[in-house]
Design a protein that fits this description.
six-stranded mixed beta sheet; 9 helices
Length: 399
């Protein structure tokens, strides 16, 4: 097993090494003008034409850009990308006479964290979606009881819909189906394949009431039902339409969830940066600078690098000292709710901790425990709180 592992690691190393050689080989085969975007002739508005000298054959601008494109166009694994990044960093110290910015080095660690954050978000979104629930035919119609979702003003196929025949109805060969949008939030149509054109009659295309007539057998009709499209026509970020399907005296209701997927908010948090990149402390103050200054000092005593956002609508503004303090000035007496909304709008971390300006952190204040609870996938909790204990005077401590 050890020999096999050694050989596998050796193969991975050789594959990474060959990838770097291929990239460098391609880079050195380019002309100077291809390697460096600044080595080509450039024109300034109203100015003369200038050409950069040919001694920039080793310019790393194009090489870094080429590797950045390789990140997007190839399926290199993380080890290969880290080797490429190392090669770029070795070139950083070299002198380059090119003007303008430098495209690299390739930040593989940032993209890796971003991908992990997106993967986590997609998993949470998947857990919150309604499952596809198939309802077998207790009547002649089989359908999906839930799980069909469509973006506002977009289209979706009516999945899982099929019909069966029963012995008492075999004498009537014509099949009639009717689809009605009961809430009128969308329209229905059939993307009719050409092979069915002469055998299918329809009315109400692109309306909220669609009728289909056909003499085809059950199997061909079920294939036709796969081409029925629902299109949302009313913009609503969270609504539900009901499609009633009628067939031979029976009817069922299809539930369609019209939902606008929220735009993902991804945060670049590194494990080695700890709690400071995950939590922001926010507060609202009004003409109580002694209190808010004491609060800031207590937070930074136990979390020196934590960002604190203060919304201030005092009449006579004073500076709030401290590192990583963002002091936002508001119109006089704007109000408690407006101030907290302003502070919350400036948060750039996954979590925030909100407290009054007369509260203080103590040695028993452990934000790490709160984050641990919030990030537990088995609990699925959105809000965690602490206990507040009153000290001497009007001060309160967060425990």
């Amino acid at each position: 097993m050890k020999v096999y592992t050694l050989r596998l690691n050796t193969l991975l190393f050789l594959a990474s090494f060959m990838t770097i050689l291929c990239l460098i080989s391609h880079y050195h085969q380019l002309t100077a003008s291809e390697r460096c975007p600044r080595s080509m002739e450039s024109r300034s508005v109203g100015g003369p034409v200038t050409t950069v000298n040919d001694n920039q054959n080793d310019c790393r601008h194009y090489f870094s850009k080429f590797v950045s494109q390789a990140w997007e166009d190839t399926s290199l694994n993380l080890r290969e990308l880290e080797n490429i990044q190392m090669a770029l960093r070795m070139r950083e110290g070299e002198d380059c006479e090119c003007e303008g910015g430098f495209y690299g080095p390739l930040k593989t660690n940032v993209k890796y964290r971003r991908d992990k954050e997106l993967e986590k978000l997609e998993k949470e979104s998947q857990d919150q979606r309604e499952p596809l629930v198939m309802c077998p035919a207790m009547s002649p119609i089989a359908y999906l009881g839930s799980g069909m979702t469509v973006e506002p003003l977009e289209s979706v196929r009516l999945k899982g819909l099929s019909i069966v025949d029963i012995p008492t109805m075999q004498g009537n060969k014509e099949i009639r189906l009717e689809f009605i949008s009961l809430k009128g939030l969308g329209v229905l149509r059939v993307d009719l394949p050409e092979k069915y054109g002469a055998n299918v009659g329809m009315s109400g295309q692109n309306s909220n009431q669609l009728k289909i007539f056909t003499a085809m057998n059950i199997s061909e009709t079920n294939n036709l039902l796969k081409h029925i499209i629902y299109t949302s026509k009313v913009y609503d970020i969270d609504a539900r339409d009901v499609i009633e399907v009628r067939y031979r005296g029976f009817s069922i209701n299809l539930q369609i969830h019209i939902r606008r997927e929220p735009f993902p908010r991804l945060f670049d948090t590194r494990e080695d940066e700890g709690i400071n990149k995950k939590v922001t402390v926010i507060t609202k103050t009004f003409m109580r600078y002694d209190a808010v200054n004491a609060m800031v000092q207590s937070v930074h005593k136990y979390y020196p690098n934590m960002t604190i956002i203060v919304a201030d609508d005092s009449e006579h503004i004073e500076k709030i000292p401290g590192n990583n303090v963002k002091h936002f000035i508001m119109p006089f007496a704007e109000g408690w709710f407006a101030g907290r909304n302003l502070a919350l709008s400036q948060v750039r971390t996954p979590y925030f901790f909100i407290l009054d300006d007369d509260m203080m952190f103590t040695k028993n204040t452990k934000l790490e425990k709160l984050v641990e609870i919030l990030e537990d996938p088995n609990l699925k909790i959105d809000i965690a709180s602490t206990r507040v204990e009153k000290e001497e005077g009007d001060r309160k401590s967060v425990v």
